């Protein structure tokens, strides 16, 4: 429970992206709700009184006039949001550069994909400073400031220097890697010092807490007592706070008329067709090509299911225009095409592929339809899709096949757990799920 004092105090949420994304269409400003787990997870906190959400509105300031900026600021103020305007160069070097080309692959155990550039780091420091300046303009001396994710790891320390009496929390929405991986980052100590400016540093799982404390001890020489680190008479606490979902939203939505109508429209599926569902952002950490290889192996080994099973692959666009991600999309689409070409019959294809954002009602319908949910990232901080499927299927039978490398695996030991790198294991898990008795599925 939140204390009464906390509920009355000023709360400032800080993340790279705001829950509202601004774009331009035909010269006019367009406002849309941002997608992603962070915006969804924090939506309830943002509704609290005396709250301001600080972040980038998703459009380069180079595209905006002074009038545009004033309009955006005024419109977002109605939603208790305060924009930080970034140039395209700042976005390229801070966001696409250090955040997503250096920290993202390293935190997900892909050091071979990591790019180290001095100009990335310089811009990361500069933009964290811009965020600090903006927060300081609106924060009271007793404000509670909640900083989110790997893009803003220097911000807690910067705020601590200027608002020492504020309460600062930091939450990491990705994995925190083991010391042996984290130590490869040249700026490792500066990043840790940045986080130690917080009063509380939170992670999804205790494994991530343990990795963080190990890195703190080995890189900064600071020990901890039961997860608490003492710094100049100040205490920094660390703990695990597994992120959740709005359970009722997913458990009840399948009963809506709109969702039932969508289900009726799925006329391609008869009662004997088994449906496997896969929903992921098109990111190399999600293991989509490996998942497709496992499904292909399953069809090879179980020809009796040809014509009787279908994989619905919903690939959500992300970071389009970046060569690495565009290449991943091509790889996925080539695999889908090859598998469909190899196994399809005149009236059946083994894979239905969607490369687009899926509306909430349609997603609810797909969750209800799916006999199997295939969630096999190579590495994932938590993974809310797994929780959404379980919530949506609470009244029905279904099987969740889940990667051991997700944070949610520690909460869902009853799922069919697999090593996402082992295509044979995933193929066998699909077979197990299909043969599982209904009572065991429930």
Question: What secondary-structure arrangement, pairings included, does this model have?
Answer:
Blueprint: H1 4-8, E1 11-17, E2 20-25, E3 28-33, H2 37-41, H3 43-46, E4 51-56, H4 66-77, E5 81-83, H5 88-107, H6 118-138, E6 144-148, H7 155-162, E7 167-171, H8 179-182, H9 188-195, E8 200-203, H10 206-220, E9 228-231, E10 234-240, H11 247-253, H12 257-265, E11 274-281, H13 288-301, E12 309-316, H14 323-343, E13 351-355, H15 360-369, E14 372-375, H16 384-392, E15 399-403, E16 416-418, H17 423-435, H18 438-441
Parallel strand pairs: 1-4, 1-6, 4-5, 6-7, 7-8, 8-10, 11-12, 11-14, 12-13, 14-15, 15-16
Antiparallel strand pairs: 2-3, 9-10
Helix pairs in contact: 5-6, 6-7, 9-10, 11-16, 12-15, 13-14, 13-17
Can you give a write-up of this model?
This protein is of the alpha/beta class and 442 residues long. The protein is 43% helix and 19% strand. It is built from 18 helices and 16 strands. It has helices at residues 4-8, 37-41, 43-46, 66-77, 88-107, 118-138, 155-162, 179-182, 188-195, 206-220, 247-253, 257-265, 288-301, 323-343, 360-369, 384-392, 423-435, 438-441, and strands at 11-17, 20-25, 28-33, 51-56, 81-83, 144-148, 167-171, 200-203, 228-231, 234-240, 274-281, 309-316, 351-355, 372-375, 399-403, 416-418. The strands form three sheets. The chain has an eight-stranded mixed sheet with strand order 5-4-1-6-7-8-10-9. The two termini are 32 Å apart. 41% of the residues are buried. Residues 1-7 have low confidence and may be disordered.
